[in-house]
Structures are given as C-alpha cells and as structure tokens.
C-alpha cells in the first residue's frame, strides 16, 4: 500500500540527523563547519594569530626577567645588610672586650707600681719575684703596654709634664726623668706617664756686634785702649 502524498506531492521522508561534532571521530582532525570557508594558509586572521602568539610569549618572558632582577636585587641588599650587621657585632664585641680589659688593668696598676719600686730597690727576690714576674707577663699577654723612658720625645697625648726645664742640649722637648710610667691597652691610654721635660733654648745673640760704638765701653771708643787717667800721668 502506497503512502499518501504530502502537500507538495512528494513522499514523506524520515528524520534527518546532522553530525555537528568539531572533531572527526575517525581521523581526529578538526572539522570545518558546514557553510564556512576553510581559512587559507595566508589569510590575515591566521597571520594575526601567529604574530600574537610570539608577542604574548615575549611579554611573559620580559615580565619574568623583571621579577628575577627584582628578586636578585633584594637578595644582594639583604646580603649587604647582613655583612654590615656582622661587622657591627664584631666591632662591638672587640670594644666591650677592650673596655673590660682596661677596667681590670686599671685596678692592677698600683700593684704593678709596687713591683716596679721593689725592683728598683733590689727587693724583688724570692717568691715575691716569681709572683711579680708572672703577673707582669700575664698583663702583657692581655695587651697592657708600659711606656715612658728617659730620652723619649715628649708627646702631650701620652705624657704628663710635671716640670719643664730649659736645656741647650736638646732640640725638641725630651723626657729627662720619669716619676711614674704610663700604660696603654691597645690605643687607649690607661694612665699617662708623669715626666720631667727638657725644652730647647735659643742661643744667646752676639750683643757686641749689634751694640752702637757710643754705647760701648771706653776701650771700644779708643780703638781698644783705655784713655790714661790723671793718676797714671803723675806716676809717669
């Protein structure tokens, strides 16, 4: 039995199914939609896409380089700050140690003075001599330095002048006697040396060469011979 004709006089057809999948399930390639023209290899759209891809990569690389440079500068700055911190700590540690050493040495100076006076009077003998020399050796190892000797040039930074004696035998202020030696710890003066200083004097000027003839004695006015007095003439 024939199916009835439709309004156009054609036989009714079954449902039409269209495959709109973008990827071909058999080949795995990208399909071109129906009615759309396949882009040519030299089309402007493809060229723009190809140009945009490297531009985007270049911008990303530039940003990464900028971040790397920033992190590197931060690391260098942090390293410099740490180095400065270590220097400050080391400097403060040395200063504290020198201060503590100087304080202890200041308390020992009277004892060292007694040992020195005993040595000058030949009283540093026996066990007292051994103890005194051991103490002097110990403070020397800790950085204590004794100074102040006869013949040293006077230095107001480390010497205390008790007396100044003019002397033609020296050309610069010179120590001629030490009443009390001085002590140093590093560059710090614990106690200045108390000394007597000899200072240079100017040579006396030749006054005879500068004195006028009328102010000279009678011998100079008469050519070196004194005029005869009345008593001398009578005796002759």
TrEMBL record:
<feature type="region of interest" description="Disordered">
    <location>
        <begin position="201"/>
        <end position="236"/>
    </location>
</feature>
<dbReference type="GO" id="GO:0006457">
    <property type="term" value="P:protein folding"/>
</dbReference>
<dbReference type="GO" id="GO:0051087">
    <property type="term" value="F:protein-folding chaperone binding"/>
</dbReference>
<dbReference type="InterPro" id="IPR009012">
    <property type="entry name" value="GrpE_head"/>
</dbReference>
<keyword id="KW-0963">Cytoplasm</keyword>
<feature type="compositionally biased region" description="Low complexity">
    <location>
        <begin position="201"/>
        <end position="230"/>
    </location>
</feature>
<feature type="compositionally biased region" description="Basic and acidic residues">
    <location>
        <begin position="17"/>
        <end position="32"/>
    </location>
</feature>
<protein>
    <recommendedName>
        <fullName>Protein GrpE</fullName>
    </recommendedName>
</protein>
<dbReference type="GO" id="GO:0000774">
    <property type="term" value="F:adenyl-nucleotide exchange factor activity"/>
</dbReference>
<keyword id="KW-0346">Stress response</keyword>
<comment type="function">
    <text>Participates actively in the response to hyperosmotic and heat shock by preventing the aggregation of stress-denatured proteins, in association with DnaK and GrpE. It is the nucleotide exchange factor for DnaK and may function as a thermosensor. Unfolded proteins bind initially to DnaJ; upon interaction with the DnaJ-bound protein, DnaK hydrolyzes its bound ATP, resulting in the formation of a stable complex. GrpE releases ADP from DnaK; ATP binding to DnaK triggers the release of the substrate protein, thus completing the reaction cycle.</text>
</comment>
<keyword id="KW-0143">Chaperone</keyword>
<dbReference type="GO" id="GO:0042803">
    <property type="term" value="F:protein homodimerization activity"/>
</dbReference>
<feature type="region of interest" description="Disordered">
    <location>
        <begin position="1"/>
        <end position="58"/>
    </location>
</feature>
<keyword id="KW-0175">Coiled coil</keyword>
<dbReference type="InterPro" id="IPR013805">
    <property type="entry name" value="GrpE_CC"/>
</dbReference>
<dbReference type="GO" id="GO:0005737">
    <property type="term" value="C:cytoplasm"/>
</dbReference>
<dbReference type="Pfam" id="PF01025">
    <property type="entry name" value="GrpE"/>
</dbReference>
<dbReference type="InterPro" id="IPR000740">
    <property type="entry name" value="GrpE"/>
</dbReference>
<feature type="coiled-coil region">
    <location>
        <begin position="61"/>
        <end position="95"/>
    </location>
</feature>
<dbReference type="GO" id="GO:0051082">
    <property type="term" value="F:unfolded protein binding"/>
</dbReference>
<comment type="subunit">
    <text>Homodimer.</text>
</comment>
<comment type="similarity">
    <text>Belongs to the GrpE family.</text>
</comment>
């Amino acid at each position: 039995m024939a199916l009835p004709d439709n309004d156009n006089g054609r036989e009714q057809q079954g449902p039409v199914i269209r495959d709109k999948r973008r990827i071909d399930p058999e080949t795995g390639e990208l399909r071109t939609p129906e009615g759309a023209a396949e882009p040519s290899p030299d089309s402007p759209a493809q060229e723009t896409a190809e140009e945009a891809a490297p531009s985007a990569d270049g911008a990303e690389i530039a940003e990464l380089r900028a971040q790397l440079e920033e992190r590197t500068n931060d690391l260098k700055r942090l390293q410099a700050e740490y180095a400065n911190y270590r220097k400050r700590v080391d400097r403060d540690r040395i200063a504290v140690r020198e201060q503590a050493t100087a304080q202890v040495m200041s308390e020992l100076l009277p004892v060292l003075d007694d040992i020195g006076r005993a040595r000058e009077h030949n009283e540093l003998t026996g066990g007292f001599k051994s103890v005194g020399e051991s103490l002097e050796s110990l403070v020397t190892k800790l950085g204590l330095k004794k100074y102040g000797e006869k013949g040293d040039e006077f230095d107001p930074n480390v010497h205390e002048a008790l007396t100044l004696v003019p002397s033609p035998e020296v050309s610069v202020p010179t120590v001629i006697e030490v009443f009390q030696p001085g002590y140093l710890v590093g560059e710090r003066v614990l106690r200045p040396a108390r000394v007597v200083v000899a200072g240079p004097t100017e040579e006396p000027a030749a006054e005879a060469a500068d004195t006028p003839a009328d102010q000279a004695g009678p011998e100079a006015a008469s050519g070196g011979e004194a005029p005869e007095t009345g008593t001398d003439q009578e005796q002759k």
